[in-house]
Amino acid sequence: MPDVAWKGLSSSEVAERVEAGQSNLVKDSTSRSLAEIIRSNVFTLFNGIILAAMVLVLITGSWRDAVFGFVIIINTGIGIVTELKAKRTLDRLSILVASDFLVRRDGRDVEVPHNEIVLGDVMWIRSGEQVPADAQVLRSWGLELDESMLTGESRTVRKGEGDRIYSGSTAVSGMALVQVDAVGEHSYAATLTAQAKVYKKTVSDLNKGINTILKFMTFLVVPLCLLLTWSQIRTVGGWQAAIATGEWRQTVVSAVAGVVGMIPEGLVLLTSLNFALAAIRLARRNTLVQELESVETLARVDCLNLDKTGTITDGGIAFDRLIMLDGAPHAAAPDEQATLQALYDLAYEEQPNGTGRAILEALGEQGYAPAGIDVRIPFSSARKWSAVGYPEQGVGIVGAAMSGGGSSAFTVPGGIWYMGAPEVILAALDGDHADVLEQVNRCAADGERVLLVAHCPDTRHVDGDWSWFESDPRLLASARPVALVLCSERVRADAEETLAWFRDQGVRCRVISGDNPVTVGAIAARVRLTGDRRPVAMDARELPEDIGELARVLEGVDVLGRVLPDQKKAIVQALHAGDHVVAMTGDGVNDALAIKEADLGIAMGNAAPATKAVAQVVLVDSKFSHLPDVVARGRQVMANMERVASLFLVKTVYSALISLGVVLSQIPYPYLPRHITYIGALTIGAPAFILALAPNTRRYMPGFLRRVVRFALPGGVATGLSVLFAAWLLPGIMGWDIADSDADLASLRATCAIILFTMGVFVLARVATPLNSWRGALVAFFAAAGVAGMFIPFVASFFALQVPTGRTLTATLIALGMSAVIFALCLAVVPHVWRWAEDRVHARRRS
User: Fold this and answer.
1) Is residue 166 part of a domain?
2) Where is the P-type ATPase A domain (predicted)?
3) 522 against 316, higher pLDDT
4) Which of 65, 146, 205, 307 is catalytic?
């Protein structure tokens, strides 16, 4: 090794690199600032319409008619708080753990912080440390890295001279001297972090539908508001008379009543509140929802990509069993207990890998402890085996536990014991071991990790001197296979039941892993990923690069192994190309890009910070079994929100129809903004919130807006016509002079409010069906509450309500009867007209 490598950089060289910006400092930034978050939530189309309407009403001095404006504050507050929480999470995002590292400078070892490492530094990587920057190995002393967070491969990787190591991996054993060749934003971990930090708003079909309604209403509201104002001014004798008498204030309030009624402001608020409530309920089950809109996505998922490690398995390795091989030809063939003792000693290294730790843990619980050995050859990924040497006479063990219980004395035969990759060891031994190799392959096909234990009892040429073996470790051809050691990844106890639930719900699950496809396929079969059918496994290195072709291949594949991070992202994109709504689970940094790309990213609680930061949902206790609860909660919210959205859209339909009728017939607006506030709260807002909490597991399907409009049209048209007919006919029946008498106009508006309330109850009953349960009681309660409010002086005064008496009561009953007939006719006729219109549109598109 060149002397400069041992010396490292000089102080002046370090200063030059820092000046040139070649340090390991990464600038933390997200794509959205605090000002941008506030601006995006405050300056929305919805807020603009409501605020303008509220300001107009406040200018008139009629503050009671402006209470609808409070929905802006609540809705905006929910949005800002949610996105600020997401921003804080992204700001804390870091793949790398900030700590001090040992670097050689000016010929000495010095501790420097993570951010002060510079390009070209010569650095020590020691067991237990996370690699802070990309580097090349100058010399290795048995360095093994856990790169699972970067690649998804659960096995540790041995690194030798000339090999590259990447930031974000962790040293699990050994040490190495390395030279840094990429720092800061140019390092592998920083590149992944930068891509993961890009802010992405969850797409909500519900919010898209609401925004479509708002955009449509904007084009309708502005001209209609002007027309309403003009028509109301006409009813009081023109602009001069309106300004002279102060009637302009009432005309503004009347125009706002039409505008506010057309905007489903309660639906926007209820959506945010229900998303938030669903998030609170899920939090009680250790499931963190980081973006409220993702609750809706839960309901639409039809494709779930599962990372094996950390999702189906818990990432740990378990020692399953020892299989003794029959037919050992030599007389000193060891028994099972002696072999288990040798296995324990073989695993008892200074820095055992995951398999070694699993063996030590399992056998340690059975009472095994280290025995006296003469020599140890540690496991090497280059050799693929480890070895221990016992004295020629063997080692006697007294009082050791037996696997079946109790204890006994036994002797571990002397000689050399090997443990390692079966194909490597068997290839070096004399004789034909095809039957053993076939048995190994059968076990591997079942998802087991298979190691071979071999024993060479012939130590006559050793004579107690092991220096020849230490200086030149080798497999002796005279050794004989003794046993197979079977280990496997620990499968989560809840995995099979959870996957069965998803199958029953019509959600296609796939396992995507960086591990060997045979191993992953076997684990998938063990948890019955595809039920009775054996999963189809494929090596990701054989996948096409074209997204369209990849989408076709994926339709027939259940398990993918050897998947790279970019491929995971491409797989999600290919499923999107097939019109699937994709959820992706994971725990490693290698999953972060795919989780970001998916419609719904789900991270385990023990996942890397980068992965948890970009996921919309985090399973805090890392239990895969929470996913059915997560999906079911999303389905409940969305299925019920579709039901109650019809209530709000009914108000939009009848408000638009009434406003149009008022403009065309030049009559005073038949009710006040405070009327719509009172009636909307009792027949739409409060009952809708309760209905949205009802159990419902129906999978959500796209087309929210079309279904809601189709359901809302009959009720909206019926309500609008009922109020208009009452406003047109009642003044003549009752002899009211609504043009010159404020009292008569107040009576008409109070009566129309009663009609509006009654029709609202009819619509609520239709939405809440079936009524033979608590739903019927719900409708009855709010109907009674609305009637009771008219008899409470403060409520009646605040909302301008009147109890009809005398001839007014008779006229009101007549109007209500007429409204019931109109409602029945609209329910029968409007759906047919809607279907006819849809058929015409489809026919025109086909032609």
Assistant:
1) yes
2) 102-195
3) 522
4) 307
